[in-house]
C-alpha cells in the first residue's frame, strides 16, 4: 500500500492424523515397518488423497539407543514424488526419499517419537512403502529379533487410527489439514507441538549483545524470565522474529523501499521488547509492539505463495491498539519493498484507515491489503458485512486462491470464528489473477509505508488454501492457549 501447488482438499478428507484405509482396494495407510540392531518403528499415515496427489504423516518411534540426529529413508513403489515437507528436510533421487531432521527435532530418546508430514504426487496407485530405514538400519518394530516376523495378510477391517500427539499447536493442525505452515512467527509461544528452538532475539542497549529467547518447554510458552534477566537495567529491542517452520523465513529490521524508515540507512525502527507484556496459559510473555516507524520484513523467502498460488494466514493482534495510518499488515508483499501494482500483495490489515476501503461502523476492521487497496469484500470501498471488531486479543484471517478469497475473525480468548467475506476477487481490475511476490511483512505496507501502529503476538502463513474446519480447529487451540 502507498502511505496516507497447492490444492483444495476434497470434502471429507480432513483426516487430521487419522490413518486412511481403503478396505478392499488393498491400501492400508499405516505400515509398521520392521530390522533390528538400532530398533525403530515407523507409522506411515495417508491423511488425505485427491486426484493426482496425497498427503501423509510419518511418525518414527526410536526403540534403540537415543539418537541426536536422524535420517529416514524409503523407496516409493509406484512413482510417487514428494512435493513439499514440513518438520524435516528432504531429497529424492528416483524412487528413494531421504528425510533428515531440522534443528529442533533431531533428538529422539529411547522410546521417544518424532513426526513429519508431506504432500506428494501419485498417478494411479499409491501403495505404502514396503520398508523404512533409520540412520541406515531397517526398522522392524523391535530391537534385536533373530528371525524375521511371520508375514500376515492385510487386515479386513480398519486398524485403529493413529492417535494425535499429546500436544498439537496451530502448525500441527494446519499440517494435518494438508495446508502446512511455510512461515510461523511468534514471540509468545511455540506454534508446533515439538518446537524447542528460538522464538525471537533481543538486543540490549547497554552493550549491544543479543540473546535468543525460546520456549519454556517444547511446544510451550516463551521464556520471558530469560528476557527479563538479560534486559534488566537497560533497554532491549526485538532484532529477529524466528520462523518456526524450518524454512528460514525469519523477520528482521525492514529496509528502505518506496518510503525510507526513521532508523539509520533508511531502515525502520525495531520494536521495544518490553512494551507488549501479556500472559499465555498463566505464563508471562511479550508481544511485538509496533509504533509508527517500526517494521519487520523478509524479501528473500522460501515456500511463500507467488503469483496466483493459494495461501492462508492468521495473526493474533491487540484489537485495542491501532490507528488510521498505513499500514499495520502481516502477510505476503513485494520483494523489492515498493508498490509494484494491483494484486502484488496479500496481507492481513488491521486498523481504521478509510482511504482505500472500510466496513461497517467506525472501525477498526480486518481487511486484506492487496496493494493499492484495503479490501473489506468484493467492492473497492465499502462492504457492509465486514464489521468493526476490537477484541483485546483478536484472531484475524485472510486467505486466497484463484478468483476466491475470504476474511474471517474472532475473539482469541473465547468462541469461534465468523466469516466476514467469502467470494470472488475484488470487482476492480488488477486482482484476478493475483501477482503475489512472496515477501513477508509485519507492521508496514508493501512499499514500506510505516505510519501504522498495532501489536502482534503470533501468526502463520500456509501453503494451500486452508479449509474453514482447519481454521476452526486452530481457533480452538488459540482460545485454549489462554491469552490474558
Automatic annotation (TrEMBL):
Ranges for region Disordered: 140-169
Biased composition (Pro residues): 146-167
Disulfide bond as UniProt keyword: yes
Entry annotated with the keyword Disulfide bond: yes
GO biological process: arabinan metabolic process; arabinose metabolic process; pectin catabolic process
Catalytic residues in the record: 371 (nucleophile), 447 (proton donor)
PANTHER family, per the entry: ALPHA-L-ARABINOFURANOSIDASE B
Name this polypeptide is given: Alpha-L-arabinofuranosidase
Native organism: Micromonospora haikouensis
Lineage: Bacteria, Bacillati, Actinomycetota, Actinomycetes, Micromonosporales
Amino acid at each position: 500500500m502507498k502511505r496516507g501447488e497447492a490444492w483444495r482438499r476434497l470434502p471429507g478428507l480432513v483426516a487430521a492424523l487419522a490413518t486412511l484405509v481403503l478396505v478392499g482396494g488393498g491400501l492400508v495407510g499405516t505400515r509398521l515397518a520392521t530390522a533390528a540392531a538400532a530398533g525403530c518403528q515407523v507409522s506411515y499415515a495417508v491423511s488425505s488423497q485427491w486426484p493426482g496427489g496425497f498427503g501423509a504423516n510419518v511418525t518414527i518411534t526410536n526403540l534403540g539407543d537415543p539418537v541426536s540426529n536422524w535420517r529416514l529413508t524409503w523407496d516409493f513403489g509406484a512413482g510417487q514424488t514428494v512435493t513439499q515437507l514440513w518438520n524435516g528436510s528432504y531429497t529424492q533421487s528416483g524412487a528413494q526419499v531421504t528425510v533428515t531432521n531440522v534443528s529442533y527435532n533431531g533428538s529422539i530418546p529411547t522410546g521417544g517419537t518424532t513426526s513429519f508430514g508431506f504432500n506428494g504426487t501419485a498417478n494411479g496407485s499409491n501403495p505404502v512403502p514396503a520398508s523404512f530405514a533409520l540412520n541406515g538400519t531397517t526398522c522392524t518394530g523391535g530391537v534385536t529379533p533373530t528371525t524375521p516376523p511371520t508375514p500376515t495378510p492385510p487386515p479386513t477391517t480398519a486398524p485403529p487410527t493413529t492417535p494425535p500427539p499429546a500436544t498439537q499447536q496451530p502448525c500441527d493442525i494446519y499440517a494435518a489439514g494438508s495446508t502446512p505452515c511455510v512461515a510461523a512467527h511468534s514471540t509468545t509461544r511455540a506454534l508446533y507441538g515439538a518446537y524447542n528452538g528460538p522464538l525471537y532475539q533481543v538486543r540490549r542497549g547497554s552493550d549491544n549483545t543479543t540473546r535468543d529467547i525460546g520456549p519454556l518447554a517444547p511446544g510451550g510458552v516463551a521464556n520471558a524470565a530469560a528476557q527479563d534477566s538479560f534486559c534488566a537495567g537497560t533497554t532491549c529491542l526485538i532484532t529477529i522474529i524466528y520462523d518456526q517452520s524450518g524454512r528460514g523465513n525469519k523477520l528482521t529490521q525492514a529496509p528502505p523501499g518506496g518510503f525510507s524508515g526513521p532508523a539509520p540507512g533508511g531502515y525502520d525502527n525495531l520494536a521495544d521488547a518490553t512494551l507488549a507484556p501479556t500472559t499465555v496459559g498463566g505464563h508471562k510473555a511479550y508481544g511485538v509492539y509496533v509504533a509508527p516507524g517500526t517494521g519487520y520484513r523478509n524479501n528473500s523467502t522460501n515456500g511463500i505463495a507467488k503469483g496466483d498460488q493459494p495461501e492462508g494466514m492468521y495473526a493474533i493482534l491487540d484489537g485495542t491498539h491501532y490507528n488510521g495510518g498505513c499500514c499495520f499488515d502481516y502477510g505476503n508483499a513485494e520483494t523489492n519493498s515498493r508498490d509494484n501494482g494491483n494484486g502484488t500483495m496479500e496481507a492481513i490489515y488491521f486498523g481504521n484507515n478509510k482511504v482505500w476501503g472500510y466496513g461497517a461502523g467506525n472501525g477498526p476492521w480486518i481487511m486484506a491489503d492487496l496493494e493499492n487497496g484495503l479490501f473489506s469484500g468484493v467492492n473497492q470501498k465499502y462492504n457492509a458485512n465486514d464489521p468493526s471488531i476490537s477484541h483485546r486479543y483478536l484472531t484475524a484471517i485472510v486467505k486466497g486462491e484463484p478468483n476466491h478469497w475470504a476474511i474471517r475473525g474472532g475473539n482469541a480468548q473465547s468462541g469461534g470464528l465468523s466469516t466476514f467475506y467469502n467470494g470472488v476477487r475484488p470487482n476492480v481490475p488488477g486482482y484476478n489473477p493475483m501477482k503475489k511476490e512472496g515477501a513477508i511483512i509485519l507492521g508496514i505496507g508493501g512499499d514500506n509505508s510505516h505510519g501504522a501502529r498495532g501489536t502482534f503476538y503470533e501468526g502463520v502463513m500456509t501453503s494451500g488454501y486452508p479449509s474453514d474446519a482447519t481454521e476452526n480447529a486452530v481457533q480452538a487451540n488459540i482460545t485454549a492457549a489462554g491469552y490474558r
